[in-house]
Amino acid sequence: MAPFSPDPLDPDDDRPPYEQVASSLGAAIRTRRLPPGEKLPSHQKLTELYGFARATIQRALRELEDQGLVVSRKGSGVYVRNRTERPAGLRPYVEQAFTAQHVTIDFAGFSGETLHGALQEPLDKIRVGRLTPASIQVRILVPDMSVPQALPVRQADGADDERLRNRVNHMMLGYARSIRDSIKELEHLGLVPETEVKVRSYRSTPPFKLYVINGADAFTGYYQVQPNKVVAQGQPIDIYDVLGKDTVLFHHSVNEGESSHGAMQVQQAQAWFESWWNTIARDCNLDAQ
């Protein structure tokens, strides 16, 4: 294998140097230019490659270790962690996806809150010209909260409550509208030639959340039912709910190899999404609410 050579850093990047190095190495790991089990170049070599002080390199490696991307072995060096079916963070993969010319993101789940947060940094980078995709397509698949669902329900009797569904619907549509408006704005400003954001709903309660990014990476996370106390229409209510923001995500990638377990997971995740999207899901009018 050829020696590792990082992509040039962006001279307009105003992040601290250690964050720039961590981001560069993280991107190389996520795209398998530094594959699982691979030993990273030495501190001295990384200092030469990036042109930063040894302390900066050390801090960048600690950042990668905190993210679960690398593991330090005393007396041996720093290695890319074997992350097969390990918990993964969505945000860096979303940011990496926007370096492609054509960006596609499919999401299925409850509110889209995590996706909304993960999109902020890459969209900001497009606004200042640091990312220049030619197209962005986002599809969001959510439950139809106009009909009773398995969740959320009242704790006391396990019964459906329209106030709870209206509360979830308000949050869900709010995140979807924000995503749509932020992305369409980029097209109106002439920063991205082609954008599309579609939202569809279906009459079922999702037991998991799913992201498929650029057809190459899939993330799944399982919702756990938890007690919660909310205020709906001014009234406090004890409910059973799903708290999706902290759901552990598991990552699979086609970069693991064409016939690998990861590649098959991505293929099946995409097939699942297409089957629901193209059959029982119906277009959702975000501006009708």
Automatic annotation (TrEMBL):
CDD domains registered for this protein in UniProt: WHTH_GntR
Any GO molecular function: DNA binding
GO BP field: negative regulation of DNA-templated transcription
Top-level taxon in the UniProt lineage: Bacteria
SUPFAM superfamilies from the UniProt entry: Winged helix' DNA-binding domain
Keywords assigned by UniProt, alphabetized: DNA-binding, Transcription, Transcription regulation
InterPro entries the record matches: Bact_HTH_transcr_reg, Tscrpt_reg_HTH_GntR, WH-like_DNA-bd_sf, WH_DNA-bd_sf
Pfam family, one: GntR
Domain HTH gntR-type span(s) in chain numbering: 15-83
The name this protein goes by in its record: GntR family transcriptional regulator
Source species taxonomy: Bacteria, Bacillati, Actinomycetota, Actinomycetes, Kitasatosporales
